[in-house]
């Protein structure tokens, strides 16, 4: 930690507590939700000028929600949820009726939706005040939050470095103690990768476990909403609030999910006897992992063994093709999803002076409103879906996806979870990769394969790299609808690992 960022990592009395501790104090009326929410709003005012985690701060709405929780408790009502009164930062890709939803893009600058996303509605129903909307790569396309039209977010561990992406704002809010809870989305690692770079916890739930209704889509077959916090238990508590079937989302799982809170609390006891942990042969053989990251990972695996886990080597033969498949499937879906931003219904409109046709207004608006990375992916996707190339590119990528899912299925017959580093290096400098799209894409090499399979994954801090003193993350993967395994293993490891400096 550098001297210049020490203050960003030094929380106050309330802002340094876990969400579980805050919830208990609020429920017992030892402290009010309004006090807790004000403390975090004050913290935002104090440090977010250096971090830029937030695009919009909802001061009045957050305090009103907090007062409503306090009034209910004073009247003798039961808390609406185990997290009632604990404030949260929401990634600016979820529809909110009382705050702008920009997706980090100029094309939606100032747009306030007429409805709440299901995740937003569930947070409100749970009595969770929403502090504001967090910065992100435009339409969730990026790995560093540098693609935001509103400027980059900085990593509280070193403000010259990225907090990751696309959900860097949510992770940075947690790491700078301006929020005890956050929500992100994970299309190829956008929850887990920022968690790794900021020493926070992030979970991509099983595809379909959390509703995508009101989530502005990037790639519909890959996107998944998920919880972020500073501890595994807090993340599990938030997971339980937002998960569940939603008939408004056609991809929502109509089946009860596992009890992730019970799994986290059981895991914290520290016994992993009987748990089989897989090491992917192809990851072990792979190049490009920094020495400090590799050392941290090996120490984490040794810790899991000490907790009683059995470590088994598994193979995912098709994984070498996953990056290429992902970057054909994702832009193809982006090309389709972003066609809706046509300047006709909402958002930015350029050239509407009566001298341009509707087609010209659409072209001018999309040229002015979309950033370079979004345009790049739209063009790649449009080409991959075009006549004569569909089978060769998009169709072939989907076949690879099927083969990769089969590889994972075979591996999970041998093990309960798979572990790897979350990212190949620690946080890189802002500007270092922004002009090299391939280098940026390669940064998600460990995270994106599980998205192609529709499975779940977690990043939990595994310490600080001996190379540069920056955070390193341990990635834990599990099959679909086995999210509880993530929380059991993650909580056991977290308890054994101890605090991170």
N-to-C SSE string, H for helix and E for strand? HHEHEHEHEHEEHHEHHEHHHHEHHEEH
Spans where pLDDT lies below 50 across 5 or more residues = none
CATH architecture of the domain at 3-268: Alpha-Beta Complex
Structural class: alpha/beta
Question: How is this structure best described in words?
Answer:
The protein is an alpha/beta fold and 501 residues long. The chain has a domain at 3-268: Alpha-Beta Complex (Amidase signature (AS) enzymes), CATH 3.90.1300. Helix content is 39%, strand content 12%. It is built from 17 helices and 11 strands. It has helices at 19-27, 33-51, 59-74, 118-125, 168-175, 192-198, 232-242, 260-267, 281-285, 291-306, 322-337, 358-369, 372-384, 391-412, 437-442, 448-453, 483-497; strands at residues 54-57, 88-91, 130-134, 181-185, 201-204, 225-229, 276-280, 310-314, 417-421, 456-464, 471-478. Strands 1-3-2-4-6-5-10-11-9-7-8 form an 11-stranded mixed beta sheet, with helices on both faces. Helix 4 (118-125) links the parallel strand 2 and strand 3. It is globular and about 65 Å long. The mean pLDDT is 96.
Task: Please tag this protein with its features.
globular, Amidase signature (AS) enzymes, 501 residues, alpha/beta, 12% strand, single chain
Summed up, what is this model?
This protein is an alpha/beta fold and 501 residues long.
């Amino acid at each position: 930690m550098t001297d210049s960022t020490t203050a960003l990592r030094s929380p106050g009395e309330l802002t340094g507590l876990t969400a579980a501790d805050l919830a208990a104090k609020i429920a017992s009326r030892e402290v009010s939700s309004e006090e807790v929410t004000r403390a975090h709003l004050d913290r935002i005012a104090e440090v977010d000028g250096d971090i830029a985690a937030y695009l919009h701060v909802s001061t009045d709405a957050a305090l009103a929600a907090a007062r409503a929780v306090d009034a209910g408790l004073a009247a003798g009502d039961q808390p609406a949820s185990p997290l009632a009164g604990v404030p949260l930062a929401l990634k600016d890709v979820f529809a909110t009726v009382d705050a702008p939803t920009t997706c980090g893009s100029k094309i939606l600058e100032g747009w306030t939706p007429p409805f709440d996303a299901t995740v937003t509605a569930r947070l409100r129903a749970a009595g969770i005040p929403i502090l504001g909307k967090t910065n992100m790569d435009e339409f969730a396309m990026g790995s560093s939050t540098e693609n935001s039209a509103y400027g980059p977010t900085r990593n509280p561990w070193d403000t010259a470095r990225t907090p990751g992406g696309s959900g860097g704002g949510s992770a940075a809010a947690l790491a700078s103690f301006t929020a005890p809870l956050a929500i992100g989305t994970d299309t190829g690692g956008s929850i887990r990768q920022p968690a790794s770079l900021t020493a926070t916890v992030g979970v991509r739930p099983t595809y379909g476990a959390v509703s995508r209704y009101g989530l502005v889509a990037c790639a519909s077959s890959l996107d998944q909403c998920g919880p972020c916090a500073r501890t595994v238990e807090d993340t599990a508590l938030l997971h339980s609030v937002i998960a569940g079937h939603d008939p408004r989302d056609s991809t929502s799982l109509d089946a009860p999910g596992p009890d992730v809170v019970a799994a986290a609390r059981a895991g914290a006891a520290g016994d992993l006897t009987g748990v089989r942990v897989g090491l992917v042969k192809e990851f072990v053989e792979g190049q490009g992992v920094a020495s400090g990251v590799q050392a941290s990972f090996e120490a984490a695996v040794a810790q899991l063994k000490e907790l009683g886990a059995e470590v088994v080597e598994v193979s995912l033969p098709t994984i070498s093709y996953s990056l290429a498949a992902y970057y054909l499937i994702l832009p193809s879906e982006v090309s389709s999803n972003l066609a809706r931003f046509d300047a006709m219904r909402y958002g930015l409109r350029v050239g509407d002076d009566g001298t341009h046709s509707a087609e010209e207004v659409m072209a001018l608006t999309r040229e002015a409103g979309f950033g370079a990375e979004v345009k790049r992916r739209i063009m790649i996707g449009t080409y991959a879906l075009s006549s004569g190339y569909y089978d060769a590119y998009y169709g072939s990528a989907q076949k690879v996806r099927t083969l990769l899912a089969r590889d994972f299925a075979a591996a999970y017959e041998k093990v309960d979870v798979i572990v790897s580093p979350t990212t190949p290096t620690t946080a890189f400098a802002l500007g270092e990769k922004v002009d090299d799209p391939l280098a940026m894409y390669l940064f998600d090499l460990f995270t994106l394969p599980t998205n192609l399979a529709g499975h779940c994954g977690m990043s939990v801090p595994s310490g600080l790299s001996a190379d540069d003193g920056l955070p390193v993350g341990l990635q834990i993967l599990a099959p679909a609808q086995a999210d509880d395994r993530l929380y059991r293993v993650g909580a056991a490891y977290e308890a054994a690992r101890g605090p991170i400096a």
